[in-house]
């Protein structure tokens, strides 16, 4: 009946609008049962279960054999780690696989058979599950004794396929690779030519005493290439040139030319190319997201225009305001946007909406998320009004910053004076007294600000929440100190009573006071701009962090399989340590093969036999025993993590900073309004709106939706 059709159209419009809000594709089934399943699948509960499952299967690597469940990483003091019995982690893994099987089945059903064969991600999803389940069966048949587990390397794929933004980012990176390859090739030519020059310059001579450069760095082609590759990262600078420079100062010209051409020109050129190309591809990706949003809104309009209550019009389709209000009641969307659209509809004098008016209403989704602070309380007393004006004025905040600076300076003075004193000689009376005074001022300042601004307005500012929380913590610690050790007095020395000694309590208070000094950031415009840029990267660029986790995880698992048990006295390489190890090497940009060799030679100068043995065994592990694998592994890791990924992060940092700088120059900040930007809004000013012809053409290609016109 017409009532059933109207309910179907309403539900279709609800789903299409929710697709537009989340930038999802609308190419899915649109019958009643499929729409219910679709909304259930994308509900918060289902998505939370899926995210939890992905987290659990990734976290299994920390407890699987070899387990990382030890307090210390020092092999001399580490107790044998607990390794789960065979079948425990495998059972958890099987449950995760079952959830993924339900996930891929629902996705495949919802998009339909024709769309399934076009979706490479879903096919890869099924293939990954098949390989993982096969490997899981093989693992159980060997009673969990096999060393190579392919499914562990494939686990990051489950994280990757679950995020549309991560897929777009990966596609952008993939599109940027050809342009990056040209510079990397030029870098390889530069490295190869200078390697040949180095082997000719530092060739072996008859005088063995003059061959230190040849012995240490340029004995053969692999060593020469590795030495210059590490020099490109500046990890062995100036060690690599010291023997040659000691022999003849003119040799420094070779190393200067290599460093200038490689580091100052080629590496920075690579950053520029990555910034330019990746920004272009990311812009295209965001443009496609905008098209998805406009397409979802237009699809909602088209199905609502098919309602029986809507009067037919040969020239143009219309949607009734009542039908849209009915849809808005069912749509899950941000309250701010829903209220703004509802307000616009109530202010509208017409009963019917055209396609243009309908689309314009939902442009509210593209606007900045605005957080307006609550109003200050209105006092009737003239005295209270003056108090409110005085303590709500920015100058009162500046006075608090000056007091915080004075507190920091006083702590520095006391620390310098007591730096060389023994704990028994230290008198904490002065430090305790000044801490007591400043903490009381911080408490008074917080209370006066609450009086002037009101509690709701005070808490609406992040800087005030940060300031107030630290003030409360400092007050609690100070009260606890007085309760245990009494009030400050001459000869107030540290004694160990309870959990912390007096000196530990004072140090903790002082660390929080130093941390509290960060409150000055909002008052320094340029510093605030830098900090908000970094915070926006953390909040909005989770997709890039996700891909970074994927890369780290895959390399950590590969490293365990390659190097596990290579040197038995050092114990098995555990996942957690290898993960942290990769994290450190990627940002310090050190090639571990040569790093360990340098450490081994350096430690040989000292009599600490144990330290020498540890470093030399590490060098033996990574170079002598499995040198070919180790060098290839670490060079590939350096290329992906440092050369490519760090430059991508720099490109995104630049884009975000330039965007904020332009907005700062063109718009004055408003004191009572905070603007919260997303990745899509970052490029909003340069995006092109899709035409009506493009939208209608795409809608007519929908595999499951039949339009009336």
Short recap of the structure:
About 70% of the residues lie in helices and about 0% in strands. With about 700 residues, it is an all-alpha fold.
Structural commentary:
This protein has about 700 residues and is mostly helical. Among the domains are: about 45-160; about 380-525, Four Helix Bundle (Hemerythrin (Met), subunit A) (Up-down Bundle), CATH 1.20.120; about 535-665, no CATH class. It contains 30 helices and six strands. It has helices spanning about 1-20, 30-40, 45-60, 90-110, 115-120, 120-140, 150-155, 155-160, 165-200, 210-215, 220-230, 240-245, 250-305, 320-330, 335-345, 355-360, 380-390, 395-415, 430-455, 455-460, 460-485, 500-515, 525-540, 540-565, 575-590, 590-605, 610-625, 625-665, 680, 690-700; strands spanning about 320, 350-355, 370, 495, 500, 675. The strands form three sheets. It has a two-stranded antiparallel sheet. A hairpin with a 2-residue loop joins strand 4 (about 495) and strand 5. It starts with a helix and ends in a 9-residue tail after the last helix.
